[in-house]
């Protein structure tokens, strides 16, 4: 699957979507990619609100969320490259955006192909992390990000 | 009398020439099919009997010949592969119906087929569809190479999951539209498929499958009662932020460093990162 400069070669059992929300006012909608081993409801928050509570013990939820170009070069996004090999120790119950009993998560801020992202992954069961983390890594291995288009130089009109 | 014999002879001669021509044409066709590996008899067997290759056409390749959709006995009617494609709005979507514990109804529709129009219209009134609670409905059209995304978007009701993928039609061996496939996520396979004229017929199929699934279910599923969720939870978050004086665009909503998120390094815990709260 491919959209908005993000590609995913999904491992068996994963579904997902790559989308942008409709922008409102001055807010610019950036691409969001969500992947899960369970059916994602239509109304899911960017970081899994409305979905993570549906997870079974063997389920995985992963979000790749892009920030605006003004975040490029900031210290938060200083790490270069999408994490491809996560370890079981990277997943902590405290990192969950929504603390659901038994689950654990990990979050990374980085810049990939000149685009600032955060990666947020949730395991349905922290106790099953040794089985689930390799599946997360299998998913991460299949993700690709196109380089951000170079903005046109301003102030030089044609002719 | 002589003239009659002459005319008769000429007709017989003409017919003989015609038959000879037809036989020759037939022989040419058979030879061409044989060269393609799809002739009468088994070319592989011919090669086995002729190891030297004498008489075996060079470059012969087996060509499976199929005409029309596969027959019922030939169809793979239980597999439920992941469907991947795009939405009419250009987003990417991949649906794995063989996951989870619920039922997924795949509705293969077209924009042009007259009998599909009723279904597109029905999907505008999801409450009246009569689908069992928890049944996921996904409309699958052919890809942007065969359908115009704008037309699909115009027909699709707001909030309806629509996937455009010609590959999905091939994977599910869809003979034509409208066509419906019901997948049981818990079993990881198709549990029903077929054509219907009215959605009530499809709903009845789903209802029966749901009863079967409930009758043989071992576990009720992984759902957890966690209070507010989805849009209701996001609205509550917005309300809390507004009450705390954090308006849209507030700098605290846009951290630029780890210090913004966690405070000065000496104030941070050594190993346990704290969850990040996000508006909405």
Give short descriptive properties of this protein:
heterodimer, A: 159 residues, mainly beta, 5-stranded antiparallel β-sheet, 3-stranded antiparallel β-sheet, 8 strands, 8% helix, B: 280 residues, alpha/beta, Glutaredoxin, 5-stranded mixed β-sheet, two-stranded antiparallel ribbon, 8 helices, 7 strands, 35% helix, 13% strand
Q: What radius of gyration of chain A results from the CA coordinates?
A: 17 Å
Number of strands of chain B: 7
Instruction: Estimate the strand proportion of chain B.
Output: 5-15%
| Record field, number of beta strands of chain A | 8
Tally of discrete structural domains of chain A: 1
Q: Give the SSE string of chain A.
A: EEEEEEEHE
What is the averaged pLDDT score of chain A?
88
User: Roughly how much helix do the residues of chain A carry, as a percent range?
Assistant: under 10%
- Helix proportion of chain B: 25-40%
Strand order of the largest sheet of chain B: 5-4-3-6-7
Largest sheet of chain A: 5 strands, antiparallel
Distance between the termini of chain A: 41 Å
- Estimated share of beta-strand residues of chain A: 25-35%
Largest interface, chains and sizes: A-B, 51 and 50 residues
Shape of chain A: globular
Biggest β-sheet description of chain B: 5 strands, mixed
Strand order of the largest sheet of chain A: 3-4-5-7-6
What is the number of helices of chain A? 1
Indicate the CATH class of the domain at 75-216 in chain B. Alpha Beta
Which oligomerization state do the chains in this entry correspond to?
heterodimer
Structural class assignment of chain A: mainly beta
